[in-house]
Predict the 3D structure of the following.
Amino acid sequence: YNKLEEIPKDFFTSMPSLVHVSLGYNKLIVIPEDTFKVPLQHLEALLYDGNELTCDCRMRWFIGRRLPYEFIGVCNQPPILKGRKIRYLKQNELHC
């Protein structure tokens, strides 16, 4: 895959009509809030599977949101959350 380590905060600005975004199997460790401030009204699926996601306080903004699209992503760190689906986490499980 692309070996992406981060997504620039303005990455989706010129792409409001995206339907499927596959960021899977890169080297991403966090889902940055700034990246998703652009409304992606047509988005049906956001795939983050196969990354080295660290589920800590930087992900609190994402937890508990009602997503109008399918989201696939699993925690890799910390060890206590390894293998957990991000969509089922609770904010009090995310520490820094």
Notes: The CA atoms of residues 31 and 59 lie 7 Å apart. The first strand starts at residue 20 and ends at 22. DSSP finds no helices and three strands in the chain.
